[in-house]
Each structure stands twice: as structure tokens, then as C-alpha cells.
Design goal:
Shape: globular
Helix content: under 10%
Number of domains: 1
Strand content: 35-45%
Radius of gyration: 16 Å
Number of strands: 9
CATH superfamily: Immunoglobulins
CATH architecture: Sandwich
CATH class: Mainly Beta
CATH topology: Immunoglobulin-like
Distance between the termini: 65 Å
Largest sheet: 6 strands, mixed
Structural class: mainly beta
Order of helices and strands: EEEEEHEEHEE
Length: 141
């Protein structure tokens, strides 16, 4: 008789990026046979959220990226909507935030996760640390 059931299928991936640099994260989404999924003709949506460490006071959410109706609250977190998640027929999902958005995120250590939503079923596919290193150059000189 089984004594454990683990429904957490997410993979761990730590991300380190630079404050003020354009952020682009590309994922190739495949089915269980290893074939790329045609995301644009499927009902796939994605949501990426970065927030302060679990247990930290305030649990700030400096970055939220999402497709279509997902992630709209990012506008209130960073004051602009220069963020996107694009999907294509080759199985690619690309999470992007402009240099302007990334300049507004304080350097530090955060946690993040990425959910894929298919036919109203949400599954966390990636999670880990999201580290923002400070930048010397500044576009707002």
C-alpha cells in the first residue's frame, strides 16, 4: 500500500538577472512524448509571479507576468505595462519585462513560480529563487 502521494510536478530553477536589463525567459513546452505543443491553438495561459521571500513581512510582489487575462495586477505593482508573455505554434512561451520595468525592482532575493493554465486547470511548472543584482548603468541619466 502506498504511503505517500506527491502531486507537486514543478521543477526547480533559480534565476539571476540584472536590475535595469531587459528580462527574457524562454520555455519550450512539450508533451509527455517530448513533442512541442502548439500553444497558440490550444487553451494555454501562463502566469509568472515574483514575490518577497515566504515569511517576509509584506511579501512584496514586484513582478507579475501573464498571458491574456492573467497577470493584469502587474500594472499596479510597477506602474507600467511593459511586460508580456508570448506563445507560438512551436511550443515556445517567452516571459519578458522591459528594462524600464526591471529598473523598478529593488535588488534582492525573491521567490517565483510559473503556472500553466490549460482548460481552467492550473499547474505550477517552475519555481525557485529570483535574484536581482544591482546594476551600475542607468537609463534614466
Amino acid at each position: 500500500m502506498a504511503s505517500k502521494l506527491n502531486l507537486d510536478v514543478s521543477e526547480k530553477l533559480d534565476i539571476t538577472c540584472k536590475r535595469g536589463d531587459t528580462f527574457n525567459l524562454g520555455l519550450l513546452i512539450k508533451d509527455s512524448a517530448g513533442t512541442a505543443i502548439t500553444l497558440s491553438t490550444s487553451s494555454y495561459e501562463f502566469l509568472m509571479q515574483v514575490r518577497g521571500r515566504r515569511g517576509a513581512s509584506g511579501r512584496e510582489r514586484p513582478l507579475i507576468l501573464g498571458t491574456a487575462s492573467k497577470g493584469k495586477s502587474a500594472v499596479t505593482n510597477v506602474g507600467a505595462n511593459n511586460f508580456t508573455v508570448t506563445i507560438d505554434d512551436s511550443g515556445n512561451a517567452t516571459f519578458s519585462a522591459s528594462d524600464t520595468i526591471m529598473a523598478r525592482i529593488a535588488p534582492g532575493r525573491y521567490v517565483y513560480d510559473i503556472q500553466q493554465i490549460v482548460d481552467s486547470v492550473s499547474t505550477t511548472i517552475l519555481e525557485g529563487r529570483f535574484i536581482v543584482n544591482d546594476d551600475i548603468s542607468n537609463l534614466e541619466v
